[in-house]
Amino acid sequence: MSNPTKSPIVAVLALLGGILLCGSASIAAEYRLASGDTIEITITGTPQLQHKAVLGLDGTVSLPVMGEIKAAGLTLSELRAKINAEIPKRMMRQRTAEGRELVFTLMPEEVTLNIVDYRPIYINGDVSKPGEQPFRPGMTVRQSLAVAGGYDTIRSRPDSPLTQLVDSRSEYETLQVQYVQVMLQVKRLKTELGETSDANDKEIDSVRIPETLLMQISAVENDRYSSRTGNLKKEKSYMERRISQSDTQISILSEQQQKEKEAMQTDLDDLKNLKELHDRGTVPITRVMDARRASLVSASRHLQTMAQLEQARKEREEVVRNLAKVEESRRDELLQELQSATLQLSSIRPRLAGLQQKLLAYTGSVRSQSPLGSSARPEISISRRVNDRYEKIVSGENTELLPGDVVEIALRID
């Protein structure tokens, strides 16, 4: 015995099923096939001939037995009629389990034709997830919006507040990193100049950048400081060694000059005595000539040593001047770098302040244009291909869609 309480439920389900089937059948009956649609053909008694095919760019579809058929622009019933008209002309061959080959003619009622996949639809504009969506018969704009995540401010327009907000935040964060880099550079330069940099430390702490990035920038500046101070020490040490070597050389040459001066004076005295003895006739002229040669040699050595001593003193003075120049030129270079970095900071500070104001303004604008609880009004249009050309259709959320439709969403603030 049937349960009477289930009868209303069964009736409702049957009614809903009938409505859905009728809706799908109605759409399939009225819909005209186009490139990208997928149809399925089934032949009773020959499951191996069940076949799915996609309409190509030229609008044709390849089907078993039938070959290529022009299907674009036809409704499903028109395509079925076209196939039924050709079927009686086609002969089928089928091999039995015993290996015998049967030849028979297909009947129109043995062929079933259905649309299994429609061309996708596309949704674009002020939605969370724009892009391609699979089409389902009876699909409306509201359902497509649900799949796309609902309304959202547009991201693709350059003048969109959201785009401006993202760009400004990115620029602000980049500028903050640049600001910290220059601040750490200023700190390093002041340290090299022997100045304190407590104010710089406080200003650096006030800027928020990732800790790891701050450590990396600090490490770079520390390495640069160590490298530059190390090179300076090496250069100064080299020059100081040269000065020390010059002092040693000057000391040796000075002592040598004194000895050669004394030797030269001795040779001159000997020459004078020998001349007097030669004048009295007690010493031959050869002795005088030998003494004169010895005197000339000692004088030449003395002059040569004097020249070497003078050259050594000049070289020492040059190294001393270069050592002083190293300090002076390094200080001048540091002061120039510090001036350039200070000017750069002066340029960055107002830009940061301006970007902060922009971020506040864009954040407020984005919030005011948010569809949640605001006065945003959606404008919906559908771009649909009709007779080989596209038409723009003003639509609403309850408008039914067709395969290949492109839905454009734009939020307007009243």
TrEMBL record:
Residues 302-344 form a coiled coil. One of its GO terms (molecular function) is polysaccharide transmembrane transporter activity. This is Soluble ligand binding domain-containing protein. Residues 168-357 form the AprE-like long alpha-helical hairpin domain. Residues 28-93 form the Polysaccharide export protein N-terminal domain. It comes from the Bacteria. The keyword ATP-binding does not apply. Keywords: Coiled coil, Signal. The keyword Hydrolase does not apply.
